[in-house]
Amino acid sequence: MTFLRPAFLYLTLPLLAACNASPGPQAPVAPQPGAYGSTEFPTVVLPKGDGCAAVIGRYDAVLKADWESGNVAERVYKEIQKELEPVRASCSAGREAEARGMVLANKTRHGYPNN
User: Fold this and answer.
1) For residues 81 and 67, what is the distance between their CA atoms, to the nearest angstrom?
2) Quick one: what percent of the chain has pLDDT higher than 70?
3) Which SS3 state, helix, strand or coil, does residue 75 take?
4) What distance lies between CA 95 and its chain's CA centroid?
5) What are phi and psi for residue 111, nearest 5 degrees?
6) 52 in Cβ contact with 40 (< 8 Å)
7) Dmax (CA) of the chain
8) Dist. CA 25–CA 15, nearest whole Å
């Protein structure tokens, strides 16, 4: 009986090796532009300057990029844009500190970094 053990091993070895064989390389599935988790991000041009208009413009550019890349739903994007209308009005009226505070509050409410 001991002489059958090596023969059994040699006969079953190819079967066991086939269990671990991979089907071969598969082509990666590329995410669609604008799809959630897409690696293709839109180009973002951030306004320069220290005034409230530049602060609002930078936040708006980031929001737009998030919406275009699919990381923010259109409904949320439109809601935030509506919330920014009084912020823009405060900035246009020369109430710099008030506008900056409103942007900060909006960023906090929607989970954006406050830097």
Assistant:
1) 11
2) 63
3) helix
4) 33
5) 85, 20
6) no
7) 98
8) 22
pLDDT tens digits, one per residue of 4-41: 576 666 676 666 665 555 666 666 655 555 555 555 65
Quote the distance between the C-alpha of residue 111 and its chain's center.
Answer: 13
| Whole-structure pTM value | 0.62
Q: Which residue bears the tokens 């180009």?
A: 43
- What contacts 67, CB < 8 A, 6 or more positions away? 73, 74, 77
Supply 18's token pair: 């086939």
CA 103 from chain centre, in angstroms, equals 21
Contact 59, 66 (CB under 8 A): no
Find all residues with CB under 8 Å of 60, minimum gap 6, and list them.
81, 84
